[in-house]
Design brief:
Blueprint: H1 3-22, H2 33-40, E1 53-57, H3 63-70, E2 75-79, H4 85-91, E3 98-101, E4 114-120, H5 130-139, E5 140-151, H6 157-170, H7 175-198, H8 204-209, H9 216-227, H10 237-245, E6 250-257, E7 261-267
Parallel strand pairs: 1-2, 1-4, 2-3, 4-5
Antiparallel strand pairs: 5-7, 6-7
Helix pairs in contact: 7-9
This protein binds S-adenosylmethionine.
S-adenosylmethionine binds at residues 9, 12-13, 16, 57-60, 63-64, 79-82, 84, 104-105, 120-122, 125-126, 225.
Length: 271
């Protein structure tokens, strides 16, 4: 990564530190195994994780780590570089089964023995994600799999025009003003959800199957999360697939999750 990219990632890590200090819990559907099944689908189910050694890159407040534990993971490595690290450590339900590391994903130890690595909603916030994908490749055992989830470009074009214009302002706001701004967006969005029930509006799939199921507090977090980080890339299908293929993953498969995002899985070859 060049210096400009490193600075952008450092700023994004700072943004997330601030975000997770405010939205620091994993309540309800947001932290549930049911949502985890939806994230893994159609490639894996929580049953695949039972008894496995796994890692999550970019753990935030630890909701995915707790989902992995609930699915029966034997050991989880949780990587989180931001000031939310303490929140992560506090939220973990079975600390004896987890190693928390305050490092960036590219610094993950090349142990070569992990069964699965997950990175959910993280790589699209890193200007040069390739070193992270490389590190994941080296940390997996032969036959191990890397599953990532990314924002998608396809299915989001209208939303993107809107959000990118808003972010020119919101990424510059101090935290308390951004929180107030979230409140202003929250109520019109509640009306939009009602319209989505009746009409085929943009992002209807995501709104009805994921967003509507979140608690009011988590809906506010999701709005904040869209407006806060200084760097976020929306991937085309081709770019999403290339991310893993470029780092020698094989059998790379892509799923258009709720028609607004990409779930991508790749396997480290046996030899
Ligand atoms: C949208 S959050 C996702 C958190 C968690 N995976 C989840 O789904 O709840 C993105 C996380 O990635 C972390 N992050 C940003 N840059 C990173 C990097 N270079 N390496 C590892 N994590 C990073 C941020 O600090 C943040 O907590």
């Amino acid at each position: 990564m060049n210096q400009k990219m490193i600075d952008r990632n450092n700023q994004t890590i700072k943004d997330f530190g601030r975000q997770w200090l405010r939205y620091n819990d994993n309540e309800g559907y947001y932290g549930s195994l049911e949502l985890f099944s939806d994230i893994l689908s159609p490639f894996l189910t929580p049953d695949h994780i039972k008894g496995c050694r796994v890692a999550e890159i970019g753990s935030g407040t630890g909701r995915i780590v707790n989902m992995l534990l609930e699915a029966g993971a034997k050991h989880v490595i949780a990587v989180e570089p931001s000031d939310a690290f303490d929140v992560l450590c506090r939220n973990i339900r079975q600390p004896e089964k987890v190693t928390c590391l305050k490092i960036t994903g590219d610094q993950l130890h090349a142990s070569g023995d992990l069964d699965y690595i997950f990175s959910i909603g993280v790589l699209h916030h890193i200007p040069d994600p390739n070193p992270v994908v490389q590190a994941a490749f080296k940390a997996l055992r032969p036959g191990g799999q890397f599953l990532i989830w990314l924002y998608g470009k396809e299915g989001n074009r209208l939303y993107l025009t809107f959000i990118q214009a808003l972010k020119v302002l919101t990424t510059r706001l101090p935290h308390f003003m951004l929180a107030a701004f979230v409140e202003m967006v929250y109520w019109p969005l509640a009306v939009y959800i009602k319209f989505c029930r009746k009409f085929p509006l943009p992002m209807r799939g995501y709104i009805l199957s994921v967003f509507e199921r979140m608690s009011p507090r988590k809906r506010r977090l999701i709005i904040y999360d869209q407006l806060n980080p200084s760097y976020a890339k929306y991937y085309t299908r081709c770019e999403a697939e290339k991310l893993l293929k470029d780092e020698k993953f094989v059998n790379v498969q892509v799923h258009h999750r709720h028609r607004y995002s990409w779930t991508v899985i790749g396997t480290k070859p046996q030899s």
